[in-house]
Structures
1.
Amino acid sequence: MKTSLIITVFITAIALAVSSFAQSSPAPGGKVTNTGQVAVPANPATGQPNPADMMKQMMELSKIGENHKLLSSLDGNWDYTIKFWMNPDPNAKPQESKGSATRKSVMGGRYVMMDVSGKMQMPGEDGKMKDMQFKGMGLEGYDNIKKKFVTSWIDNMGTGIEFSEGTYDPATKSFTYTSEMEPVPGMKTAVREVIKIADNNHMSLEWYENQGGQEKKTMEINYTKKK
């Protein structure tokens, strides 16, 4: 029963994709491209992509590559220390706290889920600083169509979902992600994250925010893999 449902959904998806391609297809005999990267041969008689060719392409794009294996290589249990620069005074000491993170590959290695927990000092309703339990969850992957690393993030400090896209530099063993956050209505802030892989047991994250047209480092996390 489940297999039949999956096949039906898959065929429906292909039919919708073919319909979408047909709406934007060139004259019969021309070529239609998938995000301008991979050509899908058109049927000379109809000018529409062949469903068999589309399925072959979709299956090819679903394969795991070296970029997925790179993310999976960071699987495991980690301890971390985090620093926040929340005070506008550049000479002020950062707030520090600790926590743990677990990274686990899912969907056959196509994605990595990360669960984070810890405590941090946050101002309460009375304005006084107090320990608060922090919970976060991330999902990372490499999009074969976009040819970019992609991530999403949620935590118990908000209700939104942060989406990021990035690249990897093998020379420096670092990921660079860009995104935009909106902690309060109308206050949109451009963000840049740099994740550096020192070795199999150590990595770090630096978080930069664009404040008033100037980029400022507001967070740093150092991870050590548990033995």
2.
Amino acid sequence: MIAVVIPSYKVKTHILDVLKRIGPVIDKIYVVDDACPEKSGDFVKEHSDDKRITILRHEKNLGVGGAVKTGYQRALADGADIIIKLDGDGQMDPALLPRLIEPIQNQTADYVKGNRFFSLDYLRKMPTGRKFGNSGLSFLNKLVSGYWNIMDPTNGFTAISATALQNIPLEKIDNRFFFEPDMLFRLNIIRAVVQDMPMQAVYRNEKSNLKIHRVLFQFPFKYFNRFYKRIFYNYFLRDFNIGSFELVMAILFLTFGVIFGVWRWSMSIETAKPATAGTVLLAGLPIILGFQSLISFLHFDVGNVPQKPITGSD
């Protein structure tokens, strides 16, 4: 069974059109009314006779992530094999659904997501602010999630296999706009294969509920937290490999070089005596070696992207 989850919050203008364009490849549609002030759940129930639709409601607004998780849980309980997340604002073309789920059906991926950066033609209609913001977040997310092979991490047009979803602790995933990056972090921890699907978003006059100040003040801490956990889980708790060794050496060399260099520099200032060539070399060489070890670790990490899908591996 293939299911679609549509988080519904202030999308009353577009949601009926989105529902009408969902083709017969989809067996179930879950519209999650996330305490929508427009009562979009009731609106869909009154104006759509599609038998595939089930309305789920939140008494309190949980955010886009919370709404999607509610839909995920219901879809799993109903026996779905593939669950798609589709926004109700019309930016994602339902005609792309067969392409989105194809890698999962072929068991070449566990999670497929849209990528609006695949072609320059796709970017022409994207607002300039989103281009730069998403580009920056994409590089940061590569480092944090470990998926160096993907782009556009905040893209919410996704499909996931039931096998992968059942291995993820949904209760620990962020309820709001950090939901997509957090999903990628969790997917890496279970070594799921993630694949991009080129797509072109449709931009109308819709207003985003994401506030820039939330990204600036909340995302950095969350990214650091997930990066630390990924490194600890993958390189120290579950395995200790050459990448682990390179990272340890990088930390030791850089720490010694910086501390020793600052100490000798402060001593030179106090005594008004310049440091000897040997002292400079003793401080500089560990820093150089540390950076080389760090680059080697990053090279190893890039090559450590999951390659074998867990879907269908049983």
